[in-house]
Each structure stands twice: as structure tokens, then as C-alpha cells.
Amino acid sequence: MQRQNLENVAWLRQKRAEGALLTDYARSHLDPGVLEESFCEVPSDGTIPQEVLEQAVKNLWALPRAWREYLGWTRQSAAAHAGVPEQLYVELEEGFDKLTVQNKMKLASALGLQSTQLLIEDQP
Question: What is residue 65's predicted lDDT score, i.e. its pLDDT?
């Protein structure tokens, strides 16, 4: 069973690198431990992983969406991390470009990101 889990983790990481999105069906049918291991963590040095930037550009996503996908979070889990209702999180994510820098910084903090990891487009 352990070998199968390692193969699932490798497969999920490969699919994520190819830009595949994990469906709700897949989330509900895979071992939670496999899902946990297949997703990445936020770099503590304040950098943005290449995969986050590539997904944002490729899919025309705002950075919060790219980060959410990178971390393997649903909108519901991102809202829980941010401590806001899911509908409010959806509005923040979809309207990210219209938020003030101060609100973007609050969202970054709520998601466990450093402000530089979410405000790249606002920097000179």
C-alpha cells in the first residue's frame, strides 16, 4: 500500500507540473495522505515558485488563484485559511486586481503568504 501511495504522489506531482487541475472527484477518491504529500508548501524566503507564476500566466489567473491551486486548496479550504466565508473569498480571488494594496497584503497574510509573494504586479 505504501508503494501505491508513493506512486500516486509522484503521479499527482507530475500532473500538477503539466498544469492539470485536481477535480473534486479525484480529491474525494484519493487517500488524504497522498493529497497532502503531493502539494507544495509556501517558500519561507519570500520567493514565488516558478510553477505558481507559470500557472498564473498560462491560465490568466490572479496570483491568489495560482497559489491556491499550487497549494492544492479548494476555494472552501482557502476561505477557511483566510478566516472568511467562502463567498467572500471567491469575491476576493476573482476581484483581486481591484483590491487596494492594503487589502492584498491582508489577504496574503491570511493565506500564510508574505506580501511579496502576492503583490508582484504592484512592485516597480
Answer: 93
User: Which pLDDT value is given to residue 33?
Assistant: 54
Question: What residues does CATH 1.10.260 cover in the chain?
Answer: 42-124
Sequence-distant (6+) residues with CB within 8 A of 48 are 63, 117, 120
Alpha-carbon gap, residue 55 to 2, rounded angstroms = 30
d(CA 38, CA 35): 5
Q: Tell me the pTM.
A: 0.66
Q: What is the DSSP secondary structure assignment for residue 58, as one 8-state letter? A: H
CA 36 to the chain's CA centroid = 13
What is the rounded distance in angstroms from the CA atom of residue 63 to the CA atom of residue 70? Answer: 10
Residues 77-95 have pLDDT tens digits of 888 888 889 999 999 999 9
Q: Which fold has domain 42-124?
A: 434 Repressor (Amino-terminal Domain) (1.10.260)
